[in-house]
Amino acid sequence: MPHASLSALVVAHNEEEMLPGCLESLAFADEIVVVLDRCTDGTRAVAQRYGARLLEGAWPIEGDRRNAGIDACIGDWILEVDADERVPPALAAEVRQVLEGADTGYFGVPFDNYIGGRLVRHGWGAYNGVQESSRLFARGCKRWGRQEVHPKLELRGAKRLLQARMTHLVDRDIFDMIDRLNRNSSSAARQAVAAGERLRLGGALRRIFSRFYKSFVARRGYREGTYGLALGLFSALYPLLTYLKAEELRRRGSGN
User: Fold this and answer.
1) CATH class of the domain at 6-171
2) pLDDT for 135-166, tens place per residue?
3) Domain residues of the chain, as ranges?
4) Taking CA atoms, which of 11, 75, 120, 186 is between 20 and 30 Å from 217?
């Protein structure tokens, strides 16, 4: 049976600090493709040092740059990894094992999410993080949508799940968590205005309670102490902040 070739794909924008650890963990792949999106720091030099094949350009839409990277890969299978993620040896070994003789389709990869040096297992979801994502896929089985925030995925073939976990270095601390909430709610507001979507204050207020309950109680964020409380609060505030920012953009008469 022929060997199933594997491309590792990393999309990066000014990630010279995080990229070395990511690329070191991808040495098991047959090729590494790094998409350099408007990089102005040393990201390019880092990628070259690790022997990656480079694709450089400017893509305002996340889905466009990720699809460009997918198209540049030559492997039978593609493992999509962000610069702040790491593939531990157990996951690398499982990927290699499952690809031998695997039918077309895709695999869900479970995540271990870290804030600083602490593993935070509970409370993730909504805008603030994932516990599992379809990162390993056969060529032609995954395309990204063109939404500015949380682009939709088009997936083809059968889905299977891996057991080993991807390491995700989500935030350094509470300050980073707040910055990310601000960035993501701003992007969501711009997308809503550009699409002519009218957000409702009543819905945003109701979701404060439902989203906090889902994150802090149903997803057991309470087990994570301060970080779990922050995840619940930020998840709850995200719709309200998006609404307020969208209204502000409309008052300005601009989606910028």
Assistant:
1) alpha beta
2) 999 999 999 999 877 889 999 999 999 999 99
3) 6-171, 174-252
4) 186
